[in-house]
Write a structure and sequence with these properties.
Elements lengths: L1 H21 L2 E8 L3 E7 L6 E8 L2 E6 L5 E8 L3 E7 L3 E7 L4 E2 L5 E2 L2 E5 L2 H12 L2 H13 L5 H25 L4 H18 L6 H6 L9 H11 L14 E4 L4 E3 L7 E7 L4 H17 L4 E7 L4 H11 L4 E4 L9 H5 L7 E5 L5 E5 L2 H12 L1
Parallel strand pairs: 1-7, 6-9, 13-14, 14-15
Antiparallel strand pairs: 1-4, 2-3, 2-5, 5-6, 7-10, 8-9, 11-12, 11-15, 13-16, 16-17
């Protein structure tokens, strides 16, 4: 009898041990080109760090638990190597290779070569990339760009084919798997690619986001998409422009509501944005021409580095209101998010009653709209 009880206890212990392991993640990692250092995993919302481990002889192990599977960012110090990978409660391996890593403007180095195994989400993501010929289209576009990017017709054709192939694959997959977290991340990457190509959201964006259900809606990725979808209304003609309050260079506050009674163009820009800086001479001419007739400009900077912003102000000497957007760490600006800004530069024209007349990234279209008002 005692022997039977011991067997039952042993089996129960084994079951609980297996169950416990099934409810946590274990990452066995190899980092080629990085012999030692510290690796840290960001939370999915980028608000802080969720886990860390020591790299020794190019290897590391991470163990923990995630409430929901997501794609996480990782940073390896002291060099600030960065990469992204899916994390779910499973036994996974990460084989990281620093060959081909790219230096970023924030002094980090982005690692693109990640061979991940043990993640069902990543397996689906890789299937998506394979079945939509992602590598073929990307390498073809890169090849044209390296040759000077002068074949615009060919580039436009490749972009359209790439977008349409992804769109078709996603629709078919999401129709069958609306609660899939993999589907949310795949759609998010499609949205980011479309935004990069065309500087706007894809047609049917709100409807596409609304189709997700169940576990997919619990992901941080979905929640970010839902915020973007909800804020699209703030790009529509006739919508009341949301008020905001931001800091000026001298740290005093400015509110958009202070401009009511005039026409005002909100200029979303950044010191590092080349086309933003190139447009400044035109806006100086427009401001000089129409300011006395009741026209104002409010420039909202997306700079995270305020010193860079101040240096640009000193160089450009723009005679209108200058404020800097607020943001949580590693997040888009609060006001640019509120106004559905997908790309810089972006301009929003507001009438005397505080309603949106035009929201666009097209400098020429905005200049014409302003001229039509004051002619």
């Amino acid at each position: 009898m005692k022997k039977t009880i011991n067997i039952v206890i042993s089996l129960l212990t084994l079951f609980l041990t297996i169950e416990a392991h099934a409810q946590q993640y274990t990452i066995n990692g190899t980092a080629i080109g990085i012999d030692s250092g510290m690796i840290r995993m960001y939370t999915a919302d980028l608000s802080g760090f969720a886990d860390s481990a020591i790299i020794k002889n190019g290897k590391f192990v991470m163990q923990g638990k995630v409430n929901i599977s997501e794609r996480h960012g990782f940073v390896i110090t002291p060099v600030n190597w960065m990469f992204r990978a899916f994390v779910e409660n499973a036994n996974m391996t990460f084989n990281i290779d620093t060959i081909g890593a790219m230096h970023q403007s924030d002094n980090s180095v982005m690692i693109w070569s990640i061979n991940q195994k043990g993640s069902a989400i990543n397996d689906t993501y890789l299937r998506f990339k394979k079945e939509t010929d992602y590598s073929h289209y990307f390498s073809s576009l890169e090849s044209i760009y390296k040759k000077g990017g002068d074949n615009q017709t060919q580039m436009d054709s490749l972009k359209l084919l790439m977008i349409e192939k992804q769109k078709t694959w996603i629709k078919k997959y999401v129709d069958k798997n609306p609660s899939s977290i993999a589907a949310v991340h795949i759609y998010n990457d499609y949205y980011e690619l479309f935004k990069q190509f065309y500087h706007t959201t894809p047609p049917g964006f709100k409807e596409a986001v609304a189709q997700f259900t169940g576990e997919a809606k619990q992901s941080v990725c979905y929640k970010n998409l839902a915020v973007t979808a909800a804020n699209l209304v703030n790009k529509e003609t006739g919508t009341a422009a949301p008020n905001f309050t931001l800091l000026k260079r001298d740290n005093t506050k400015f509110s958009l509501s202070e401009t009511k009674g005039t026409y005002v163009m909100i200029d979303f820009w950044a010191s590092w944005c080349v086309p933003c800086r190139a447009a400044i001479p035109n806006w100086k001419n427009v401001y000089t021409k129409y300011h006395d007739k009741g026209f104002n400009i409010v420039s909202v900077s997306d700079d995270q580095n305020k010193n860079s912003w101040k240096k640009a102000l000193d160089k450009e000497l723009m005679p209108w209101m200058q404020v800097v957007d607020e943001r949580a760490p590693s997040k888009p600006g609060n006001v640019s998010t509120l106004y559905g800004v997908n790309y810089l530069p972006h301009y929003v024209l507001v009438d005397k009653e505080g309603k949106i007349l035009l929201s666009t990234g097209d400098e020429e279209a905005m200049t014409k709209k302003i001229a039509d008002i004051f002619k």
